[in-house]
Design goal:
The protein is an alpha/beta fold and about 150 residues long. The chain contains 6 helices and 5 strands. Helices cover about 40% and strands about 15% of the residues.
Length: about 150
């Protein structure tokens, strides 16, 4: 990328109206949205339901959509965390081990993530795997700035 710092964004869709969500994406200058949700087809996702989201991104933001399963948590780990069977700290550690095991930094290309937005559900990145994924990739690839769209 020619010595220029890579930018990697993150966003969650819950607690946002569609106008705010797509406004944040448009204003960011990002060119692609990478969906790292495990469940992205649920009616509960509203405007962020996978097939609708792909259309809206293209029409409203001129952004490309893709799903990246290598960055999704496992069904069991997510269920355990959401149901309180494991703490955030344990879930986070297990998720990072999962990324290490999948060798995502070697399999995925930094060029495919420059000016891209990692999408998950949580309103805030504090306790969301999108933040963990962004930090993991930034640490592995170096020279990467993370911007959380709030």
């Amino acid at each position: 990328m020619g010595g220029k710092m890579m930018r990697l964004f993150t966003i969650g869709f819950t607690k946002k109206k569609a106008r705010e969500f797509f406004g944040l994406l448009s204003d960011s200058g990002a060119t692609a949205l990478v969906d790292i949700r495990l469940r992205n087809r649920s009616q509960l996702a509203g405007f962020a339901k996978r097939d609708d989201l792909e259309f809206f991104l293209s029409e409203i933001c001129d952004m490309h959509y893709r799903q990246e399963l290598l960055l999704t948590p496992t069904e069991q780990a997510l269920r355990d965390y959401q149901h309180g069977a494991v703490s955030w700290e344990r879930y986070a550690a297990e998720y990072v081990r999962l990324l290490e095991g999948r060798q995502v930094e070697a399999v995925l290309s930094p060029a495919d993530f420059n000016e891209a937005v990692l999408l998950c559900s949580e309103a805030s990145p504090d306790r969301c795997h999108r933040r963990l994924a962004a930090e993991y990739l930034a640490s592995a690839w170096g020279d990467t700035g993370i911007v959380h769209l709030l």
